[in-house]
Specification:
Length: 171
């Protein structure tokens, strides 16, 4: 915030007014909830990720255990994540990563955490949610487009071809 701690601007956009205290957008006239994006777009992204998981290259350095693990990886690669840095001596980073992996798996339903050992320590990545409440249309679309670009490069398949294959599987 500019202007010192605790100082907030009194100027609010219509979007900020519509979001109100709940953080969910509502019509400023009637108060009815406003959908930020379609359920179809949300479902489509997850279906494409599931298809991509089935086609994931076996020689890729990241090997997802399931579509949900791939989703987490893709959101991190799309830079839609929070991080936790654990500093340690460089000689301890690999061992610390192994220990953290075991601890975090216990708290993550057995899913392997997304983390990387650096010379200064270990960075743990947690993908941010793309739920309706957490990501508006603009954020969701930006993340989706980046995920599609990552999938095109990784799979060597045009996203339109992947979308068609996903639609054929759904039919």
């Amino acid at each position: 915030m500019e202007g010192g701690a605790g100082v907030q601007s009194v100027m609010m956009s219509n979007t900020e007014k519509a979001l109100g205290a709940s953080g969910r957008q509502a019509c400023p006239t009637c108060g009815a909830p406003v959908r930020q994006r379609s359920q179809a777009a949300h479902n489509h992204l997850f279906a494409i990720i599931t298809t991509a998981w089935k086609l994931w290259p076996s020689d890729h350095p990241f090997q997802p255990e399931d579509p949900e693990h791939l989703r987490a990886y893709l959101l991190v690669k799309a830079r839609h994540f929070d991080k936790l840095d654990v500093k340690c001596k460089s000689s301890d980073a690999i061992g610390l990563r192994t220990q953290l992996d075991a601890v975090i798996r216990a708290f993550c339903d057995g899913k392997p955490p997304l983390m990387h050992a650096y010379p200064w320590g270990v960075r743990v990545f947690r993908p941010r949610s793309i739920s309706y409440a957490a990501a508006d249309r603009k954020v969701f679309n930006a993340v989706s487009e980046t995920v599609f670009e990552i999938l095109e490069v990784t799979l060597g398949v045009k996203i339109e071809d992947l979308k068609r294959e996903t639609q054929m599987e759904a039919a």
